[in-house]
Structures are given as C-alpha cells and as structure tokens.
Amino acid sequence: xxxxxxxxxxxxxxxxxxxxxxxxxxxxxxxxxxxxxxxxxxxxxxxxxxxxxxxxxxxxxxxxxxxxxxxxxxxxxxxxxxxxxxxxxxxxxxxxxxxxxxxxxxxxxxxxxxxxxxxxxxxxxxxxxxxxxxxxxxxxxxxxxxxxxxxxxxxxxxxxxxxxxxxxxxxxxxxxxxxxxxxxxxxxxxxxxxxxxxxxxxxxxxxxxxxxxxxxxxxxxxxxxxxxxxxxxxxxxxxxxxxxxxxxxxxxxxxxxxxxxxxxxxxxxxxxxxxxxxxxxxxxxxxxxxxxxxxxxxxxxxxx
Amino acid sequence: xxxxxxxxxxxxxxxxxxxxxxxxxxxxxxxxxxxxxxxxxxxxxxxxxxxxxxxxxxxxxxxxxxxxxxxxxxxxxxxxxxxxxxxxxxxxxxxxxxxxxxxxxxxxxxxxxxxxxxxxxxxxxxxxxxxxxxxxxxxxxxxxxxxxxxxxxxxxxxxxxxxxxxxxxxxxxxxxxxxxxxxxxxxxxxxxxxxxxxxxxxxxxxxxxxxxxxxxxxxxxxxxxxxxxxxxxxxxxxxxxxxxxxxxxxxxxxxxxxxxxxxxxxxxxxxxxxxxxxxxxxxxxxxxxxxxxxxxxxxxxxxx
Lengths: 304, 304
What we know:
heterodimer, A: about 300 residues, alpha/beta, 4-stranded mixed beta sheet, 11 helices, 12 strands, about 45% helix, globular, B: about 300 residues, 8-stranded mixed beta sheet, 12 helices
C-alpha cells in the first residue's frame, strides 16, 4: 500500500511515522528544509512508541509518487492549499481528512473526485523537531465513509491504521462522532484560547458560581441543542469527554491556545464559526457559542 | 471638617489633592504604598494633565495615626474594600463613609464596619505616574446618595458634595444614587472584560459590529437586572459606550482591566459582571452572557 501524508505537523508526523512501518509512505511538507531533513534522517517517533523509519518527503507536490491513500493532516486552515496541491491528480487514490471542525470534506471535494473518508482523531503529539514527534495521547482515530465511499474501503484503512500501531475505530456514519468532537473542540479550545488555561481541572469545576465548569457545561448544552436541531445524534457526550480528558493527569494544550499565544491564525472559523453557522441554519439560539466565536475572532484581530 | 481618602491611587488622589486646596478642610490619605505615602508627606500630592494641583495633606499607612474624621472617601480597588475599611473604621466612628469605587458590593462591605454609608459613583480617571504624582486623564462628575440599609444623613451627604464641588470635583447629592452607579457598572462590565479577553482597545471593540453586538447583549442583561430593582438609569449606558469610542475621547484607551490582565494583576471582575450575576440570580433575571464573561476572566486570572 502506498500512502501520502499531506502536512507534517504533529498529527501528520504521527500518521506518517506509524504507517511507514507497514506501508510505503511519502510526506508532503510546506518547507524544503523539512523535506530534506526527513529524507536525510528519517522520522523518529518517541513517547508511547519508540522507533525511527524512512519516509520519502517532498516539498513540491509535482514530485510526489503515486499513492492509494492520501491523508490530509494539515490544520483546518490549511486544507484548501493542501487539497489544491494534489488537485486533479492521483485518480486512483482515496483521500482522508482528519481536521477539527466541519467542512474539510467539502473543501477537498472542490479539488477532485476522489472517494473521501471522514475522520476525527483524538491522538495527540508534540513535535520536537522536523524529524522527531513524541506520541503523547494514544486515543483513537474515528473514521467513516463520506458520500458514496464504501464502508469496506474504510474498514481496510482502519485495519491499516491498527496494523501500524495506532488506535482506530470504523463507524458507518462519522457525523455523530464529528459533531461530538466539534462541540467538544468549540467549547474547550475556545475557552482555553480566551483564558490561557490548558485543558485542566478548571474545565470541570462547578463548585462556586464563577467556576469555569459552568460555562463549559452551558456551552456543551447549547451545542447539543444545535446538534439535535441538525438531526444529529451524538456519538459521545462532549461533557463526559471533557471531564474524562481533565482527569488524564497531564493537561493538554489545545492548538487554539498555542495559536493565540504565538499570535497565529486559529481554526476558529471551521470550529466555532461552523457551529454558530449550523445554529443559524437550523434556527437555534446559540448566544454563548456566538460570544466565544466573536471573542476569539477579535483576539486574532488584535494581533495587528 | 476632616476628610480621609482611603486608598490614594489615581482616583483617590484626584479627590485628596483637590480637597486639600480648601482652607476649611483637613485632608488625610490612607494608603499601603509606602513610597507614595512618603512622597506625599514630603513634597505634597501633585496632579497634572486635565487639571493641575499640588495638594498639601497628611498621608499614612498606619490607621492608628488617623484622627477622628467627618468623612471617609473609599477609593481602593473593589477587592481591597473590606481590608481597607476594617483597618480604618475607627476613624469614622462619628463620621460618614462614601465609596467612589467601581462595581457592586462596596457599600455592603463598608456597612459591615461603619454606620453611615454614602453610595457614590465618579467618572474622573487618571493614573499614578510615580510616588506623589498622578496624571489626571479625564474630568467628570460624581454623584453621592444614601446607602439605604445604613444611610448617611442627607445634610451630611450635601456637605461632602458641596466641598468636592468647591474643590473642583463637580459633585451632586441625590436621593437615589443607584442610577449613575448602575450606568457605570453596566458600562464597565460590558466593555472592560471584552477588551481584557481580546486585547483590543475600546474603540476597536466598538467598531467590530459582531463584537459590539456582544457588548449590547451584556448591556441588555445589566439593564434588566437594574430594572428588576426599580432602578432608573440616569442615561443609557449605550450612549456612554458610543461616546467613549470616538477618536477624540477614548478610542485608543486600553480598559483598566486589560491593563490588569497584561500585568497579570487581579481584576475587578467579581464586582462588575460577578455583581450583575449575583443581583440577577437574587431577582431571577437571566444573566448568562455576564456569567460567561465572569467565568472567562476568572479563568484567565487562574492561568497565571
């Protein structure tokens, strides 16, 4: 099997490193030096697993070898450019999106007719260098068919991920899981970016009236009402996902927090913006999510 | 007539230095900032900017040095009210104590230690430039009235207002001072934390239509809580918000709460949005946006 991972941040590097133990893996990077370093040194995975593998890396999409499975592993803000870089090519490939939020599949669809696979991932890692990623949380990736894609093909991909050492669960319909994660991310990432708190015990605290857990709970409840109005039955309760995650010991730094601290654009449009737009489309009031969305957007505006 | 300003920061200094201009008044200042106290005792208290004055007064950090006073003017940050009045209450055993602080709950704290309390709201602003020297940024009016559970007599309130006015701080004594207080609380609660959470100046908050809508959502909740108590606002806080957003007024002003957040100092959020939520829950008025903002800023403080 030939796999191409597009985008080699922490999540892309975790996919590429693991899959390279069972498949031929190519990696498309944004920077030439990054590709060069991967070609010279290979890719090292540490943490929960410990190995170094060879991958073929390119910064120029025209140099990419043919592949059967493309994984778009950029941030939500990078999907347009990533899909554009393979647009109109690789007709035999299946393409999988793993972004937070909603709408990545539609963006990819505009660039080609590949069968698409929807995925959300809960694994996490930290990139220590261009060639070294630490595998931190080994929570699963959920995947399911998008549009006409057959379930059998998604099962093959799920099996490939499991064979590579990653955790994966194949679902007939990913939408309930995507929405669970959407509500979770819109709530946790937004609150984290605004408060500067990593995802720690504050997010589940509901003892005194100003405790953050009240707000988190109300945001989750608002999100559930939007999901219900959209006809989506959630796969997991986002509040329980939140409570569970805060009990893990080491607090996770959501990417939206890292982004605002580094004064980078965040994924707010595809996460919080997407949820607020869904609320509008289905006629549900979402004043708290609208507030978080506006505040994070304004925080981005304050960079300049 | 003896007056003691309790908490001689920027606003306290405006009252102290101006009142010290009057021959028939003996002015004292109580403050814990030793360098500031020493500077006032050696060279006087200087104001520059919107008005110039050099006030000769006695300052101390030792409450036992204070004489028995006719009036106290409490001007600490709201979170220091209880400690400051507990320390100085003996000086006001036969006097009246006014608050000119931000927020809700200061009168209640003062009434725990003294018997004749004056509810006050003041709009002048400044900042401490160096010990003994305050920059007077904005002139403005002050309103004083009785705090009903433990009211100061009307003629005493009028006497203090007359002295302040004569000293160059225009002050009106009224029967019900809650209107101006709630107008200012609603103004501060609806704009300061939005600046603090986004990093934007007042003008930039107001020119983003979506963010301005969030501000109005906060204002509407505050108005509903005021109305439920039978309080008639002396003017619409929205007018003050739009007025302050003008380039020649406070477009570039960083809210004091944003300055606090940047310096990682505790904010007055408990007494602004927290106060609105507290009154709202007693009166069964919905305040979910103010509660959200309260939690976010508390979370921000917890991240330090």
